Amino acid sequence: xxxxxxxxxxxxxxxxxxxxxxxxxxxxxxxxxxxxxxxxxxxxxxxxxxxxxxxxxxxxxxxxxxxxxxxxxxxxxxxxxxxxxxxxxxxxxxxxxxxxxxxxxxxxxxxxxxxxxxxxxxxxxxxxxxxxxxxxxxxxxx
Amino acid sequence: xxxxxxxxxxxxxxxxxxxxxxxxxxxxxxxxxxxxxxxxxxxxxxxxxxxxxxxxxxxxxxxxxxxxxxxxxxxxxxxxxxxxxxxxxxxxxxxxxxxxxxxxxxxxxxxxxxxxxxxxxxxxxxxxxxxxxxxxxxxxxx
Amino acid sequence: xxxxxxxxxxxxxxxxxxxxxxxxxxxxxxxxxxxxxxxxxxxxxxxxxxxxxxxxxxxxxxxxxxxxxxxxxxxxxxxxxxxxxxxxxxxxxxxxxxxxxxxxxxxxxxxxxxxxxxxxxxxxxxxxxxxxxxxxxxxxxx
Amino acid sequence: xxxxxxxxxxxxxxxxxxxxxxxxxxxxxxxxxxxxxxxxxxxxxxxxxxxxxxxxxxxxxxxxxxxxxxxxxxxxxxxxxxxxxxxxxxxxxxxxxxxxxxxxxxxxxxxxxxxxxxxxxxxxxxxxxxxxxxxxxxxxxx
Amino acid sequence: xxxxxxxxxxxxxxxxxxxxxxxxxxxxxxxxxxxxxxxxxxxxxxxxxxxxxxxxxxxxxxxxxxxxxxxxxxxxxxxxxxxxxxxxxxxxxxxxxxxxxxxxxxxxxxxxxxxxxxxxxxxxxxxxxxxxxxxxxxxxxx
Amino acid sequence: xxxxxxxxxxxxxxxxxxxxxxxxxxxxxxxxxxxxxxxxxxxxxxxxxxxxxxxxxxxxxxxxxxxxxxxxxxxxxxxxxxxxxxxxxxxxxxxxxxxxxxxxxxxxxxxxxxxxxxxxxxxxxxxxxxxxxxxxxxxxxx
Lengths: 142, 142, 142, 142, 142, 142
What we know:
Helix content of chain A is 27%, strand content 35%.
């Protein structure tokens, strides 16, 4: 029986964002979100780790060619986020608070659609700073 | 259905410890634990990664405000371990060998009690050096 | 009930490899594998993370003495891969394409045989570069 | 004769910026600066390393108490940059292109004024991403 | 007077090498170089840090556009080393022992020729593993 | 003319220390040093970077064989500090406050004596935590 191996590729992008709920007053945003809600926004070097699972192809020894995975993630995700302001420049996030929680779920949905059928998207990990990161396995709660 | 997202915050603390079983002779301690049992102790820069799981709040986009999580872990855990000697200064560890295995389980139990009810403690990862780390998911064996 | 704790030790080794399928022409190898198939090979500083699970021994506080784990992995794995060319110097890989996918599965099988019976091999993580890594949990697909 | 020892403390701040010369047209900005000039800005997790030099005080063994250095840099620099948009929120940068080159020189001038007289500011290192950093030693050219 | 600022860009390349002096017997090579002289070679993920110095251009705020520096170093250096065996595939190293000391001096000479005249090459740092690196400032001894 | 190349090797050791001036009362120690003066001590994973300079030997391509440097530093320095309490277990530090400033100067003096005559000790860098490090170039002030 073939082995199930997981393969992870890391990507970086630099973006600005502002945590802001437009349904609230500026005062309530400032109170609840603190400096994360400063009007002009701030920014991060995000690191995205994309983990896929599959069985190594006997002819290549690869689950998926890393160059192919790199191209797919850069075209589907990174080009749309790098050097952008998440509140203004990213159509996918319109109407959403650009928290890293919301961002990681949207990245998952886009990658799911773009990956070849025999490749399983297993985990996303998204670092916002060196001190915090978010993970998503595609799980839903009731 | 809302997504289940995991959020991790990293913390550092500097502490001393000595691996020592008081039921044994000094010779047996030295033989079994080697330099880890040197009488005056040695120390580490520990890194603790606390991972919680939950669904993003539609009004904030957050599983839990990172500033709130930081405050809770610092008050419950870090203040009691940072710049301490684990064998002498930490009541929770009295009567326990301060191995990183024992320490991570005690941290789990304290955090479980302190976290809000709707937040699930998912994983702790505790780095002792750059070359080794311990993980605990709250699992028990029979 | 005793807690189930996971312990990870990191190892590094420097090795050369060439991704090459001898059943194919040089042209097809070059076309499919790109520079990874350059004839004389290239190399990496691999980092291997070995994760085992178990319950802390009440007398030592240890799942397994880290010095013992280090010795076992170095003798079983690292000595056979460090400063080697994976296509020529590693009997275990003969007849296999030395992709990191194939390598991680072979390391798993060797460690399984070498670890004491009460220790569970939980996960291997093998970094090929700072930007990609592979994980294996011993899973098989149908 | 007392030894001259250098002491470095690292700091992190998250900020947004846009590389933009207001004397130029938007087209020229886009052409010369590429995505760094996108109108809404992007952002980074900056890491600042402050290096001071001095002789250890015989009574404390310290060149300068790290807690005192931390407080001084946070109040003088970090609080004015963290969670800010460098083009709008930082008076010191008004009328300046917020390149990391310009930023590091301004930080130097502020720290020079704030440090105690017996402490020599030796070097600043400012990381913009994991792949680039800037250094300044207070040198001027003719 | 304008400030002199240093700017560093990091690059990675994966290569194989063998430390071997063809004027010696295989036995002497093995004795003096140990496993570094294994016949088929081994490899590393090298990290190259290129540091240049200059004054920020008042119109751009840049010492040198990072994208321009990246392109120049990739074309002059990285493309000739990445995924190569340093003993066979790199004309510049022919007749030289491919130690990291020799490699860093050759990279310096190539970059010196390729950089624009107003840019000063200040320092190269070349990591061979996570535990060792080499630096060169263009200094000669008598 | 031969090139002057600098070579750095990294080492890690785990040690405990307490910042304490025995000429002062416990109250004064607590007031000036804060938690760094807690009676039982605390600890760190120290990282030591030893940088030497020299010209590559034409026969080996090496400034100094890294294995030889590793052995020399481990025997001269690391074995005397690793898994030790710096206030009690290290004769060299007796009568000295075990600040990292004092420690780095003592390491320099020991290494100077132990290195071969044609090798120049250029720089020591000693990390106490991930957020601070100390450097010494052997400089004295008047």
